[in-house]
Please model this.
Amino acid sequence: MVSLRGATASLGGRPVLRGVDLTVHRGEVVALLGGNGSGKSTTIRAVVGQVPLTTGELELFGTPSRRFRQWRRIGYVPQRTTAASGVPATVREVVSTGRLSRTGLRPLGRADRAAVTWALELVGMANRADDSVNALSGGQHQRVLIARALASDPELLIMDEPMAGVDLASQQVLADTLRQRVAAGTTVLLVLHELGALESLIDRAVVLRDGLVVHEGAPPAATGPHALPGHDHVHPHATTEPGRTGFLDTWAGQP
Ligand SMILES: Nc1ncnc2c1ncn2[C@@H]1O[C@H](COP(=O)(O)OP(=O)(O)OP(=O)(O)O)[C@@H](O)[C@H]1O
Model:
């Protein structure tokens, strides 16, 4: 569903991706891991067409990206942001924008409205549908953004740190939502700092460092404090506490 080969990209004149290879097969759940600034967000932004490649090739659903137009097949949840965009939109309105890739400029029909309600129910936000997005907590914003991505019933869901800043209860709701979509056949590519509540869902981990893939394989079970949601993997105490070194830090080359 995604084939990125030899991808290089620069931002602000600096090379950020230095030859990334990434393949995601149908039905897989692939986690992109790595330290801050290793290129995780840039990689998935390249996949969704937001960062141009300098060299390399990208195919989506077997089609070279320059010819790919079927964006309704992909749901994208950007790195933590709010669902509010300065306009007084309701939760339902924001999630409805997720149907634009299917409807274009035609008004939403009955099937579109049903899909929006379905997505809201999936993330447990149906009871807030008519509330302003400005009245939501951070975790609720994240649920709304995930519902927006789900509203087009995408075959491929791409998410940038969907659990960042989300409380444990909301993490569980989101993990259950993802589990349900994966069971229904959705393919998932997501950036994570910790596997946390999603650990059992991940088929394969791809670890980036300095814009290169440095490890790829089944994610080992994280144990100890690194496995806890919300643990910050950049931590000065690790060198004085060698027993607490987690797998992610080891792969990512963090101290
Ligand atoms: N718009 C930009 N202009 C210039 N440099 C950028 C821009 N966006 C990102 N970078 C740089 O590119 C590198 C990779 O950033 P990226 O956001 O892909 O990392 P990341 O692995 O997702 O990190 P994090 O875990 O902190 O989110 C970083 O060094 C960052 O400073």
